[in-house]
Design brief:
This protein is an alpha/beta fold. It has two domains: about 240 residues, Mur-like, catalytic domain (UDP-N-acetylmuramoyl-L-alanine:D-glutamate ligase, 3-Layer(aba) Sandwich), CATH 3.40.1190; about 150 residues, Protein-Tyrosine Phosphatase, Chain A (Alpha-Beta Complex), CATH 3.90.190.20. The chain is built from 16 helices and 15 strands. Helix 1 packs across helix 3, helix 2 packs across helix 9 and helix 8 runs antiparallel to helix 9.
């Protein structure tokens, strides 16, 4: 009975929060911007929030991109922070009919779709199903709003055909309203590009180490320009943006290797993008660490195909995790040290520490499941949490407990929470007359 009562109470609480969220959305005069897509949406949303912050007050919700996050954004965060000029929300689709409830609640004035790829293969199965799910954000646009669509992606630009709303396009296509040219990055040289639009040409210098970041950059810049942010202000904000953790995040150690940490997600379509970044990098020594490839169509031979490409780029390739044995690496490569097969992230960390060469470039590429970012963090921190799979979705930077053994996480969090409550209580006592 207690369990049933608890479930009823939780359901009622959630319904109340949803009601308050819808009411807060209806009362708000902010411009609401929803961003979705198979890749690039987190960076686009975060960068757009950073740009708009120079033009008005902003609340940006990224990474946590579920209906629960949206409810919290609308009724809790907006109540705490007060009215803002812009709300930027990253909307993720984790299965059929998961995006529409968010889109209907958000009621965006601007809907951005970055790309359609076959992620969450088990749930969607086809590109058409993914596109249909993403389209829900465009369908939910408010009167007078506009959709910003990737002109280079046929599944995205196809969303323009049946919408009654204004459509603005961006991409490499000559027909795009915001046309991107002169894309170049060769680490350590960071990404530079030009955006051509009705206002002229905007030259941009970014902090990103790879060329494929032109897409989220162009998406964010196009929305900002369309909303009236001055071009010079846009360029200045792009140059000062801090990239999100674990999304091709650059970590440079003192006297040791340089890491590019791309360990937030690893769909099959992103593997060659990461390898292309490494191929264009102008450093003398390169290593690639490949962990888990995300949910995909086809067989596990993808690990074999990935190794054939990686070995032509890097001086050494390291496979880690449950699929490390699927590389297809020959015995000659193993004997020569060109390939290493390891099971645990801690083993990779120890191997790299033993063999590191100052200034070498190491790519850490995997889905978030393995938390390969710990390998880079271990160069500046005493990492003690090396459990192979912890089950947490957020990165180690966000979790913040990587210096605490995994089995002590719960007690550590309880003690920290108790300490914060005690501090609040002492502050309240101090205010007593």
């Amino acid at each position: 009975m207690n369990a049933r009562l608890r479930k009823v109470r939780e359901d009622l609480g959630q319904r109340l929060r949803v009601y308050k969220a819808r009411r807060a959305r209806a009362k708000s005069s902010a411009t609401f911007i929803g961003i979705t897509g198979s890749s690039g949406k987190s960076t686009a949303a975060s960068l757009l929030g950073h740009i708009l912050a120079s033009h008005g007050s902003v609340y940006a919700q990224v990474l946590a991109n579920t209906i629960k996050s949206l409810v919290s954004t609308l009724y809790k965060r907006m109540k705490t922070d007060g009215e803002v000029d812009y709300v930027v929300f990253e909307a993720g689709a984790h299965g059929p009919d998961t995006l529409k409830p968010m889109a209907d609640m958000l009621q965006p004035h601007v809907a951005v779709v970055t790309m359609v790829r076959l992620e969450h293969f088990t749930a969607f199965r086809t590109l058409e199903n993914v596109a249909g799910e993403k389209r829900a954000l465009v369908d939910a646009l408010q009167p007078g709003g506009f959709a910003l669509l990737n002109a280079d992606d046929p599944h995205v630009i196809g969303m323009a055909s049946a919408t009654p709303h204004r459509v603005v396009t961006f991409g490499l296509s000559e027909q795009a309203d915001y046309r991107v040219t002169n894309v170049h990055a060769a680490y350590p040289d960071r990404l530079a590009l030009a955006v051509h639009w009705r206002g002229g040409v905007l030259e941009l210098k970014t902090p990103f180490p790879a060329e494929h970041f032109w897409l989220p950059t162009a998406a964010a810049v196009s929305v900002a320009l369309e909303l009236g942010v001055p071009p010079e202000k846009v360029a200045a904000r792009v140059a000062t943006f801090q990239p999100l953790p674990n999304r091709c995040q650059v970590l440079i150690t003192n006297g040791g290797p340089q890491f590019i940490v791309d360990a937030a997600k690893s769909p099959w379509h992103s593997i060659n993008l990461a390898f292309d970044m490494m191929a264009k990098a102008t450093v003398e020594r390169k290593r690639i660490v490949l962990g888990q490839i995300s949910d995909y169509a086809g067989s596990t031979r993808k690990y074999h195909y990935a190794y054939k490409t990686a070995r032509e780029i890097a001086d050494q390739v390291i496979y880690v995790g449950d699929n490390a044995h699927r590389s297809g690496a020959g015995q000659d490569d193993r004997d020569a040290g060109r390939f290493h097969e390891l099971r645990m992230p801690k083993e990779v960390s120890d191997h790299i520490k033993r063999t590191a060469v100052a200034g070498e470039l190491i790519l850490l590429k995997s889905s978030s499941r393995l938390h390969l970012e710990r390998i880079a963090l271990a160069w500046k921190h005493d990492v003690k949490c090396w459990v192979p799979v912890c089950g947490k979705r957020e990165g180690c930077d966000t979790c913040g407990l990587f210096e605490v053994p995994f089995e002590e996480h719960r007690s550590h969090v309880r003690e920290r929470r108790h300490a914060r409550r005690w501090q609040r209580f002492r502050r309240l006592l101090g205010r007593q007359p």
